[in-house]
Amino acid sequence: MMSQAPETCNGNCGSCSADCASRKAGPGSMREKPNPASSVKKVIGVVSGKGGVGKSFVAGMLAVLLNRRGYHTAVLDADITGPSIPKMFGIHEKATGDEKGLCPVSTGTGIDVMSINLLLDEESAPVVWRGPLIAGAVRQFWTDVVWKDVDFLFVDMPPGTGDVPLTVFQSIPVDGIVVVTSPQELVSMIVSKAVGMAEMMSVPILGIVENMSWVRCPGCGRKISVFGESHADSVAEKYGLKVLSRLPIDPEAARACDRGEAEKVSGEWLSAAADAVEHA
């Protein structure tokens, strides 16, 4: 049975997980309609249970790889307080709009991007907003932005299971998610949180990408597990998932993204993950 709305209720169900009577019943009842001028075939969320695991890098590179395969890809940067997608792609211009809505900014190879940084007067200015405002901004990136003829829209979500992931899962028709992890032993707990939320929201999980899995010794060429033995396989087996890709620590790739040249990174390590997305 649903409970009564909490005393602190602000009427914004998108930023609340309470199962109260004011919430509309039925699956998909909180879905927001996209901009009438939008056309998006597949929405893929890129999530992690904690920060610092390279989630934005994976989201950006998946968009690059699918773009190279001839698809029109786009990235919705839902990490409002820590946006990094524009910097990865070297985007510094501001988003514009017309009577139809906001227009995303296109990268050099035609990947459409929308991020809060493209709307701020100063891209380095902090976004000091409370949860409902942040969730509202993400919702508007779906309802107000014209995503034109997009085959795959990647949603780069902030870490954790808070307001924004909840808003995305409730408001946007997500076709699948990719969970990004690191090799440390606490990966089991991290993945369990992301998997648990996805299952609660009935969102398919495409698999796991392990980032920072190894580094190649510049002297002898041997692979070194900097963060210790990987636990990705055991965790994947526990939850019935696939390990889609293992990414090395690649200083050159990091430097390329810092220079805004993500589209020049080869990204072959993510090919299997790109395959999973392509067939989602």
**What is the residue-mean pLDDT, rounded to a whole number?**
87
The CATH topology, please? Rossmann fold
**Shape, please?**
globular
Radius of gyration: 19 Å
**Strand order across the biggest sheet?**
5-6-2-7-1-8-9-12
Helical content (DSSP H or I, runs of 4+)? 25-40%
Question: From N to C, what is the helix and strand string?
Answer: EHEHEEEEHEHEHEEEHEHH
How large is the count of helical segments? 8
Within CATH, the superfamily carries the name P-loop containing nucleotide triphosphate hydrolases
Largest sheet: 8 strands, mixed
Uncertain parts: 1-5, 10-15, 17-28
Query: What portion of residues belong to β-strands?
Result: 15-25%
Identify the CATH architecture.
3-Layer(aba) Sandwich
Total of domains: 1
Kindly describe this structure.
It is globular and about 60 Å long. β5 and β6 form a beta hairpin. It has 280 residues and is α/β, with parallel strands linked by helices. The longest helix is centred in the first third of the chain and has 14 residues, at 55-68. The chain is built from 8 helices and 12 strands. The strands form 3 sheets. It has an 8-stranded mixed sheet with strand order 5-6-2-7-1-8-9-12, sandwiched between helices. α3 (131-143) packs parallel to α4 (163-171). The two termini are 34 Å apart. Residues 1-5, 10-15 and 17-28 have low confidence and may be disordered. The protein has one domain: P-loop containing nucleotide triphosphate hydrolases (Rossmann fold, 3-Layer(aba) Sandwich).
